[in-house]
Amino acid sequence: MEAGKVAGKVQKTDQEQDAFVLDRRRRLHELVVALIQQQDELKLLDGEAPHLDIAASSAQAHDPARWLDRNRRVLQRYQALVRSAVTIDALLDAE
């Protein structure tokens, strides 16, 4: 009988932990969406990979290094938004 009570407490703790994680994830999602709405212009990643078999005259417009650098900057901006949301959530949790 005692083992059943312990197992029930462990299971309840797991359920509480899952609920906490889901609630935190929801809060972070809402914070990220709010931060995105605050942005003037938020660029998306360019999914169109540059073609390496193009003519030299238009090579600069389709430079793989520029494409990669642009996508890296866009990704860093999104990462900054997520880090900001996590920081705001942690500060609210600390209060």
* Uncertain segments: none
According to DSSP, the number of beta strands is 0
As a percent range, the share of strand residues is under 5%
Radius of gyration: 23 Å
Derived from helix and strand composition plus strand pairing, the structural class reads: mainly alpha
Shape: elongated
Largest sheet: none
Tell me what the structure shows.
The chain is 72% helix and 0% strand. The chain has 95 residues and is an all-alpha fold. The chain has one domain (2-93). The radius of gyration is 23 Å and the shape is elongated.
Please name the defining characteristics of this protein.
95 residues; mainly alpha; 2 helices
Fold topology:
Layout: H1 2-38, H2 64-94
Helix pairs in contact: 1-2
Summarize the structure.
This protein is mostly helical and 95 residues long. The chain has helices at 2-38, 64-94.
